[in-house]
Structures are given as structure tokens and as C-alpha cells.
What does this fold into?
Amino acid sequence: MRGRGPGRRGGERTLKPRAGHVDGTHLAIVLIVAMSANGFLALPRFVALRAGGAGWLAMGLGALVALAGLTLLVTALARFRGQGLVGVAAEVAGPVVGRLLVLPLFLYFLADTALTGREFAENLYLALLPNTPVPVTAAVLLGLAGATASLGLETLVRAAMLWSLIIALFLVPLLASFVTLADFSNLTPLWGPGLGSLAIQGWKDSGLYPEYLLLGVVAPLVRRRQELWRAGALAIGGTWLVLASLSVLTVAVLSPEGAARLSFPVFVLARSVALGRFLERVEAVFVFLFFLALTLRKSVTLLGAAFLLAGSLDLGHHRPLVPALTVLAYGLSFVPLSVTEAAALDFTVIREVLWVLVVGLPLALLALAAGRRKGGGGAARSR
Amino acid sequence: MAKLWWERLLRVFRPSRNLASRTFSLGRREPFRARRSRQAEKGPPPPRSTRQPAGPPGAPTARIEHEKVSSRLEDNLRRVREVFNLPRNSDVVVREFRFGNSPAIRAGLVFIEGLTDKNHLHGAVLQPLMVLSRLGRPLPRRERVKMVSEALLPHNQVQEEKELAPLVEGVLAGHTALFVDGEAAGLVVQTRGFEFRAVEQPTAEQVVRGPKHAFTENLRVNTSLVRRSFRCAALVVESWRLGRLTRTETALLYVDGLTNPRLIQETRRRLAAIDVDRILDSGQVEQYLEDAPALLPTVLATERPDRVAAFLADGHVALLVGDSPFALIAPATFETFYHNPEDVYLRWPLGTMLRLIRLAGVFVTLLLPAAYVALINFHQEMIPTELTLAISAAREAVPFPSFVELFFLEAGFELIREAGVRIPSVIGPTIGIVGAVILGQAAVAANLISPVLIIIVAVTALGSFAVPNYSAAMLLRAYRIPFALLGLILGFFGIAAGLYAMALLLCSTKSFGVPYMSPIAPYRGGPPDVVVRGQLTRLSRRPVYLRPLDAISQRRLLRKWDPHSAELERPPSAEPGEGSGPRPPGR
It folds into this structure.
């Protein structure tokens, strides 16, 4: 994607494409793959820890909260035709405060790129590649994510569409094979820790879907802007479906206590897949599934970070930022001392407060726009 | 200052691969009415023949660029002799003669021996002029060239030219130039006739079911082969000359009113930009036309006229280059490289099966050696115990690591293949037998390689030969070693990384502005004709990514006798049985 960054005149803050747009539905596929990828890491573990067998319900509630955030975001974007999240923030809050508003999202994208890379590299080291140093694996992962982000949104969308077919091809048999091992009594009681706790957990689980905000960042590049809500809803709903399936089957097979002890529960489940005498121990094959999903996730977050930074700094193009951000994410990924610490930072610190971004950021933008009477009805100053 | 540095940085990181595609895209389809009105405003299509400027300094046509034909025959022939370096040039013939009576008129013919058909020249040019012209009335004093062209030369193609350059160019193309004294114009008489290979069977794209003729080394024969398969007046064959020195005749083919005008315009733009001294084969044009120097073939080469006709009917453009027996098709997407005309000629389940086999061939070629190396070195737990023991026993005496073993065997295979192509065909099979059987057996007996690996390499080779496109098959074979290396270093993780990188390459490549992975990524709907070959009755739309002016290739309800179609077609109030009757007017 070739984009022109926000200009200095007239609040013109759009990533104006010179060539190429993407469909909302295609973006939804990218987001489903990216947001679901967490399910292949330690997410089922933390879901089991916090909500027991009712994790899927909590994630469902979280999806509803994220949908509310999406609605607010789309409403805010609709007031400023042709603008993305960065442009809207600058319009409603001024250039400095606007940048501060989107800064947490940039930091989240960067932190997620780093932590996901570290977690996956460590898990690969423990499960499959004990002789390959973690920095090598992490470098390969981040290098490919950087290359994807550098090639732009169009390439990312096409790659995601291609890989989503392969991911589905691996994921469906994997889940089907889990069903035969599942003990669904592990999912009771249905309300898990209780309705009150479940509601609170559900609210916090909206932090599993912050990538939908990328729709706001790339809104100027979406072919039909009115598709944004539909694309976001499709992404959030699809992600919930995948995450809930993974979570339900993990807990049903391993029990909540068993799942809570594992850092890479889906891989452990994959080990139990046996399709016959000559098809035993095929878990290594599923590395394709984990690899594709997680690399796409990192590409999405890295691209989001690059877009946000380029937009905030009034730069004309995101591409030169990508190598620097990749190296930065690589360095940051080794800040946690161990994979346990990285996963804990990801799921018990960052995701606990991510609801602020998921709901708070769109709400703040809309409130500021309404309060300052900016935008609306075609937005005189927007393009 | 900071902005300056930023711009520099931007230039560094801006990949060149997308530059061409950025400047061109087929764009979105306009509404039908808008298209019609725009076409009406635009008027007639562009001129049929678009020629590049004359050649480089020193080339014959460059020396006489814009030079008018003189009314004195001596001057014209002197200039021609100078241009063709006569008498040093031994194959250029200048023949002076007289024709007509009362008084006889002096004239001169210029042609190149070997390029012209002598019988044709004698019977259709010299004889009418020197013999028949004396039988009738005296020729008029003015417009003699016109008179000769209209009344004396019984030839189907004669063109009057006022400048020397096209006359000389015609001579170089094998035609005959005729100068008449007293006339400031000359004639190009099409007398080309030289030896070329007859139309034969395809060598690289053979089919069991379907036409069995292929292009040959003659442009006009090749265009006629396409016309035989595509008998439609809307098919346009535009003439081009490429190469400043070689002046290679090239034909750009498209269907007027169907092919996207932007695609035609873009092809013209790229052809006009080919400013090189030589074009000897379509393989060179293919590389000059690509969006960017890509690792993947982005223009399809085919030797089958029926395939060209099918692509033209879909809205592609085709190029026939000089004496090349391969036509070029643009744009080309990934799917076209594993499709084969036979897929369509056979019934859809068989067509689908063949495509699946070829796709399996693609993956086997690319991944089987890599998977073997990864399994041996990283993922032994996946192999059943009995098989592990068998492989270990076979490899026990082999002193090399698996990758080295694989590398040497693959290199040996490529050596045999290359030798088999280059050596005379009489001993070609011998090389295959010697290489494959004797050397292979000897290598296993000497414990240099394991028998399992011979199976792996043999299956890989078979997989690559199942890919119908030569360039694509070669490319796949080239990529298998890097993939094996990734399998050696990082196991399945490395292979996954390689596949991911390859997907990035595929997804970021464009052919004439069309995404290479169309119509899968981006998915644009359309008939099922990518992996599964849909039923012909359902393939009613042309590829969406080409944005053809007419998206419908056939009516949906074309099988009027089909009870199901009749059911769909019948108006709600009609009586049973009426649906199979004649179609109502206007539908």
C-alpha cells in the first residue's frame, strides 16, 4: 500500500491511498486470524484460571463489549469522512492531545508484537526445537512480520486470505479430533465463578479484541466505508467463535485445573492426536497452523504500530518505520526474563486494562467530537 | 533537513516491485451505460498499425528517416544501394527493367534473395509488368505507381509509400520494393516467402484430448493459427516492430469491445518502451514486459493456439513475437501456470482431478525433499518406529549428512536432465537410462546415497514434470533446495517460514496491475475455476480481475433441453412442459 500521510494543512490527516483499497470483508478475515492467534498461546490457560469452564461465556461478553466499542468508533469515524483514527483524534482533541490519545494504542501494538514473538519462540523451543536458540526463532518470526508490514496492507490482506484457508484446513481437523477426547462435564458449572465475577471477567475480556481498532486506523483505505461496522462485527464474532471453541475444548479435554498449568495447552492437545498406526505424534505438523496465525498477528500489530506512528508524526509513509519498529520489538521481546513472565505480563497485566482502549478510546473520541461540535454531516474540513 | 532525510529514507525502502503496478491498475468496472457512452464518445478504435520510430543511428532505416522518395529512379536506386551497402552486400538484389510501351517506362525492384518467394516475384510482379503491360494501351504520364498498383500487379497486398524508410523496412521484412521512374512514390509488394518449420505438435504442452497443433517460427502462420481458432471480426492483430537492429515483427492480439482498453493501452505503453537493439525471442519480450524484475513468471508463454484463443476470449491480451513459437499472454495469474487446456476439454470431474494432481505435483516438488530432511533431523517422532528403523538401516552405511546426500542427488538429477535436453535426440534416452538406472544403482551399491532418497528425488522429479508450464516447473525445482536448507536448519518451522515468505512473494506480485493470486487473494467471487474445474454450463462469467467490457461469456440457461434449466426459465404462469420450448424473444 502506498499511502500519503497526514498533511499539515487544514487538519488533513489521512493515509490517502494512491493505489489500492481493501474490502471490509477481507479486513475482517485478517482480524479474525490475528485476534484468534492468541488462542494458540497461553490464552486458554488464563481463561481456565480466571473463569474455569465458563471462559467461553466471559469471552462472549467481552465480544459484546468490543462490539459496543466498535459501534462508538464507527459513529465517530462517520462524523469525519475520509479520516482515520489518527486524523479524528487530531481533529477533536488538537494535534498534541490527539497524539496522546492514540499513543496507548501504538504502545499496545508494539508490546503485543514483542510479547507474542517471545511467547511463541519460547514455546517452540520447549516443544519442538530444543537445539535452536530462542533469539534465532524470534528473529525469524519478527523478520517475516516486518517484511509483511513493509509490503503494506494489501499484501497483508491477500496473504491472510490465502493462509486463512490453510489455517482452517488444519484447525478444523484439530478441533474435531479434540471432540473425541472431550469430557464436557468439565465445563460445569455453566456460570463458572459466579454471575458477578463472570460479568466482570467478561468486561475485562473485551481486551481480547483490541485489534478491531485497526479498522479505525486504516479506515481511509477501506473501499466502502459503510462496511466498517459489518467488518468489525464479523471480525469480533468470528474471533469469539474460534477462541471459544479452543477454550471449550481445551478445558473439556484437560479440565480447568489441567489447562491452567500449561503454557502452550493447544500444542499439548495436538500431541494427543492419533489418526491411526502410521499417523501418530503428528503435533509437529500443527506448527504450520501456529506459525501462520501468529506471524500474521504480529504483522497486523506491527503494521498498526507503523501506521499510527507515521500518522502521528505527519510522515508520508509508514514503510521506513517498519525496520526500526521490528528491531525495537525484537529488543523489547527479551525484556521479560522468561516465557512465564512474558505470558503473565500479556494476560494478567496488559489485557486486564485493555478494555480502556477497546471502549474508552472510541468513547473519548465521540464525546470530544460531540462536546466540541466537530465533524458530522460530511465534516467541512475533512476530505 | 529532516524532511530531506526522510525522503531519502523513503526512496531506500520503497520497493521497486510495485512501481509499475502503482502506475497502472485495471480499475473498477464501470457501469454498462457509462461504458457505452464513453465508447461512443471515444469513436473508432486506435489505428491498427503502430510503428516505433526507425532504428538506431547506423541502422538502414535510421539513415533515411523522413527521406522522401525521389521522382528520379537513379536517385532512389543510388540511395538504396548506399543504404544496403551494395555491392558489398551479396544477398540484396536490385533489378532494373522497363515496362509498358510508347514509350517504355524504367523501373527498379529491390528485394533480398532468400527472403522472397522467387516464383511469386516472377509470376506476380515481373511477368505482369514486363509482358502484360506491353499488350494494352500506353500508360498515363501521371500517377503511374497508382496505375501499376491497381491494374498491373495481380497481388493481394501492395502498399504505396512516399518515404524511403518503409520501403527499406519492407525489403528487410522479405517484401519487394518497386520504384518507377518519374514517380515520387514506391510500392511495397508482399512477396515474402522463406523456409520455416511446418505446423507440428506441441512439444511442451501436449494433450491427449484437444487440438494437436502448435505455433511455429512464422508470425503470419501463427496469427492464422489463432484466427482459425477465433473466427471473430473483433479480434485485432496490431503490428509492432521491436528491437532497433532486429526490427522483430510482433503482433499484439486482443478482442475489441471485450478486452479492457486500459489493459490494451498499458500493453502498448510497455511495448513502446522496449528500447533495445535486439529482440530475438518472446522470452526476451516477456522479461521486458514484466511489472518488475520478478522471481516469478508474470507473463504466460504458451505454444498452443487454442489456449491463446481461450485467453483472448476471457479478455487477456496476447503477443506473438517474430519467429518465436511461443505466444505470450498477459496478465498471468498463479492459477494459469497449473491449468492446462485439457482441463476444459475433459469432463469436469476429470478436469478437477487433473488439476489436483498437478497441484499435488507443485507441493511435492517444493516440499518433499525439505520434509524428508526435516523429518530425519528434527521430527523423528512423527515417523513410525518400523519406518524409522528401515530408514536408519538404509542410511547406516552412507557417510554423508542427509542434506548433503540430497543435494548431490538433486544436482545429479539436474545434470542428467540438462544433458538430456542438450544432446542429440538419438542418444537422449540412453543418457536417461545411464543416469537414472546405472548411476543410481551404482551410487546405492557404493553406499554414497540411500535408496529412500532415490525414491524421494524420483517422486520430486515426477511432481515437477506434472507442472504444465516449463518456466514454473523450473522455478519450483530451483526453490526446492532453499526449502530443504530451511528444513535442515529449523525443521518444519523453517519450512513454514519459507512457505510464508513465498506467500508474501506471491501476494505482493502483480501482473499488469492484476494481483498474482487473483481470484483467490483478493477473492472476488466468480465461477469455480481455480482448483475445481466447474461445470462448463456454470462458467458463465469471465474473470472479474480482468475487468472485461463484457463480463458474461455465456448465457446461464444455455441447455434448453435440460429439465432443470427449463424449470428455471419457465415463466411462473406457464404450463408444465412449456419450458423446453423456444426461448421467448428478448431473453
